Amino acid sequence: MKYILYARKSTESEERQIMSIDAQIAELKEFAAREKLEIVASLCEAKTAKEPGRIKFAEMLNFIESGKAEGILAWHPDRLARNSVDGGRIIYLLDTGRMKALKCPTFWFENTPQGKFMLNIAFGQSKYFIDNLSENVKRGFRQKVRQGLWPSGQAPIGYLNNKTTRGIDIDQERAPLIRRAFEHYSTGDNTLKVIGSMLKESGFRSRKGNAYSTSCVQRILQNPVYYGAIRFNNEISEGNHEPIISKQLFDQAQAVMANRGKKKRKRKHEYSFVGLMKCGACDCAITAERQKGHVYYRCTKKRGVCEEKYLREEELADQFREVIQKVALPDDWAKLMLAKLSQEKADANSNHQAVVQNLQTQRKDIEQKLDQLLDLKLGGSIDAEEYRNKKNQLSNQKIGIGQRIRDFEQHGNNWLEPMKALINSSCQAKILIKTKKYNDVHTFLKNIGSNFILKGKKCRFDGKIGWRQLLKKSPYNKWLGEKDSNPHRRSQSPLVYH
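Below the sequence we write its predicted structure tokens.
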């Protein structure tokens, strides 16, 4: 009788069970020599038997069905099948007589009703083992998630596995690149492909040394782990690992991704101030075109006739330079402000207890709602989908409040850090006055203003509310008064510009 030798290990990883197949083959060949069995082929594969679809297993059955062999030689029935489909196919071959024998060194089988019954039990035990193991592993994963730990496997990109705590720690080399990717994408000016190219140029590679594809970049930007959450079984839970970005930045990136559904027509020429302004006469967009070596900005006239005149790019840039001149901050003023800012930060840190306590109360309320929600699920009052959606909503709220508490404890009043960025930005504005890189001017203007209107060859806009609110909250006018009592100079301060 001719036999096919079949050996299998459960994983494709070379590091795990690396000797399993070699050990099986050696034992089976010794067994075949003792029993004087003829082996016509040896098939080996590293694939789980939990699900159907193994290539070598199908090849082995084809050997049996074509009559090239009449028996199978394996170490144990669980090497052949751990699912009902593959186990059923082997038993069916025995029932039809195409397979005469199944031999294992550790398992005795005879092609009789009782023998096939015992083989069926062996396959059932193999399936029970893998199902029970899977459930135990999932239970362990769920418990780790409840504790705020990364459930299993390799840490996500930007983090490293910590074998001591069994959690994940920030990868100091990759995390800044992840943060940069979120910051650039959330502006809305960069596509996923651009972000991928940026990461590639920064040396951002997979563990195998390959550049990340666009779809992988998208998965990175959609992963809630980076703002401190863990997504497991489509449920969001709070993690105890250190976040790389804020929840606010993550939400901004998701909003940009959601608004990229419409395919935009690619322009033949890219102009610096296109997309910034609207026509003050008809509210249409302002476009640009090149004529006789110069760039002119004009109304698109999509709503009919418009009498708004053309405006050369150099004239428009001169207007923007005047605006930048008004918000440019002298170095001595900036130095004074930053010094006072440090003093304000120290004073604010001693008066934040009430705000923190209020946020902690809100977080406890959410925790109670999560407990009540779980009780409703266990009681059958809500289905799994409704529970999952509501839990994700509450978990995100809890994570957001936790980040606000941490930010407040670290920075005091939440206007201090943005104000510091405002001062530094205003201090650097004088560089833009002389620059010919109009794209940088465009970016700066979007940071300080909104609702740009071009009318009568003049561009007007509103100062951003965030800047005005920060300025109203700050005591900088008083500080400048202490430094310089000249009211004319104080009136030129960017602090009074809107």
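Residues 187 and 256 are 8 Å apart (CA to CA).
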